[in-house]
Amino acid sequence: MKINEKTTRRKEKLEALNKVTAANASHTGKQVMLPEMIKKATKSDADKALARMFYANGLSFDLADSKYYKEAIDVVLVMFH
C-alpha cells in the first residue's frame, strides 16, 4: 500500500470518528468506547455507500445474491479486519 493511500485511509477513519464523537457527546452524556465508535461509523458509512450505489444506479437488490457480489464484499471486509 502506498503512503498516499495510507494517509487517505487514516484521514477517512478520523473523519468518521469525529462525526460519531460529535454526535454522541452532545446527546447521551455518557462516554462511548473508542472501538464502539469506530465500529458504528464504519457500518453506517458502509450502509450508506451501498444503498447509494444500488439506488443511484438503479441496480436490482437481487445483485446482493450474486456470487461475485458476495466475493467482492468478503474481500473488502478482510481489508478492514
Describe this structure in words.
The radius of gyration is 16 Å and the shape is globular. It has one domain (3-79). It has helices at 3-27, 34-56, 67-79. The longest helix has 25 residues, at 3-27. The chain has 81 residues and is mainly α. Helix 1 (3-27) packs across helix 2. 75% of the residues lie in helices and 0% in strands. The protein is built from three helices and no strands. The two termini are 16 Å apart.
Features:
globular, 81 residues, mainly alpha, 0% strand, single chain
Please outline the helices and strands:
Elements: H1 3-27, H2 34-56, H3 67-79
Summarize the structure.
The protein is mainly α. Helices cover 75% and strands 0% of the residues.
Helix percent band: over 70%
Question: Structural class, please?
Answer: mainly alpha
Uncertain residue ranges: none
Shape descriptor: globular
Rg calc = 16 Å
Major sheet attributes: none
Number of domains: 1
Termini separation comes to 16 Å
Query: How much of the residues is beta strand, in percent?
Result: under 5%
Please provide the count of β strands: 0
- Note the total helix count: 3
